[in-house]
Amino acid sequence: MPDLSQIEQQMADIISQLHEYNYQYYVLDAPTVPDSHYDRLMRELKDLEQQYPQLKQSDSPSQKVGGEALKSFSQVTHQIPMLSLDNVFDDKEWQGFISRIRDRLGVAGALAFCCEPKLDGLAVSLRYENGILVQAATRGDGAVGENITENVRTINSIPLRLRGDDIPAVFEVRGEVFMPKASFEALNEQAIKKGEKTFANPRNAAAGSLRQLDSKITAKRNLAFYAYGVGFVENGDDWLPASHYQRLMRLKELGLPVCPEIRAVDAAEDCVAFYQDILSRRDQLSYEIDGVVLKVDSIAQQQQLGFVARAPRWATAYKFPAQEELTRLTDVEFQV
Ligand code: NAD
């Protein structure tokens, strides 16, 4: 018989560590441990919560998205929440994901997927009204984000006006702002020369650059953007295609940049080949990725599958094995 009070204490210790890491990562943009360490702790917590559901806390980090919006920015309430993604780390977990989807949909045959690189930047929501960019927000805690419109307006690849005439009066696009590897290296070199603090990785550099109170600083940071989804659309999103991949192609027609590596596949089995291919080319890509995102392609099936607390059921991140992560961190204890 396990000692429940001991397990409760173990869970409380993990939770307080995760709270601290979330604060460093999401609020300060300065992590002190590699993502693989964070992911292991989170997995440990989720396993304990599954084994001992009576000990699960309602404010557990396993149920929450991101971090809180900084008070220095005005706040934006998302009309449709910005969620996170669940993760799989190996083939066994991927097979588990697929069989859960098959069970829920009652589909035994082929399942079409949209396969995308998992860009290592930060999620933003762009709001276009009558085709004009009027607001940009960070994900924040998923419900409330930071208003970063002025900073986003400095990113060259984000159109201030969409192409085309039949765009709904309100149209929200979701995607990732990231810092290309070359810009990240140059930024850190410059910081070293000036004796300033360097960023731990391109994700934190992108987040730190976007969450500046002075947009002139953001303008100098050479950030980029790829769209990967749609948020709120006035009068519903029926004017968009019924396939996620085709929707991304429509976003491209509207003038929004979409990652050139994305692929539509007819069968779930092909997702693994995509994962292997992108993993083998990871170092040649001009931007940092930490896995791939595999999404059920049919919007009708996505709607049927729905969401859990912090993530959609119709998508998962298939994360790459941990690399020589964050070797720049001073805390060598955590180097892998
Ligand atoms: P996540 O990064 O695992 O996945 C969700 C995010 O993926 C989305 O919000 C979006 O920004 C991004 N994304 C990239 N490409 C995408 C695509 N093609 N389609 C859809 N989304 C895409 O989740 P998260 O909640 O942002 O962060 C959790 C992860 O962050 C952890 O698993 C851990 O690796 C890391 N983390 C690390 C620390 C640390 O201290 N090192 C602390 C907190 C979080």
UniProtKB/TrEMBL annotation:
<feature type="binding site">
    <location>
        <position position="139"/>
    </location>
    <ligand>
        <name>NAD(+)</name>
    </ligand>
</feature>
<feature type="active site" description="N6-AMP-lysine intermediate">
    <location>
        <position position="118"/>
    </location>
</feature>
<protein>
    <recommendedName>
        <fullName>DNA ligase</fullName>
    </recommendedName>
</protein>
<feature type="binding site">
    <location>
        <begin position="35"/>
        <end position="39"/>
    </location>
    <ligand>
        <name>NAD(+)</name>
    </ligand>
</feature>
<feature type="binding site">
    <location>
        <position position="295"/>
    </location>
    <ligand>
        <name>NAD(+)</name>
    </ligand>
</feature>
<comment type="similarity">
    <text>Belongs to the NAD-dependent DNA ligase family. LigA subfamily.</text>
</comment>
<feature type="binding site">
    <location>
        <position position="319"/>
    </location>
    <ligand>
        <name>NAD(+)</name>
    </ligand>
</feature>
<feature type="binding site">
    <location>
        <begin position="84"/>
        <end position="85"/>
    </location>
    <ligand>
        <name>NAD(+)</name>
    </ligand>
</feature>
<comment type="function">
    <text>DNA ligase that catalyzes the formation of phosphodiester linkages between 5'-phosphoryl and 3'-hydroxyl groups in double-stranded DNA using NAD as a coenzyme and as the energy source for the reaction. It is essential for DNA replication and repair of damaged DNA.</text>
</comment>
<feature type="binding site">
    <location>
        <position position="176"/>
    </location>
    <ligand>
        <name>NAD(+)</name>
    </ligand>
</feature>
<feature type="binding site">
    <location>
        <position position="116"/>
    </location>
    <ligand>
        <name>NAD(+)</name>
    </ligand>
</feature>
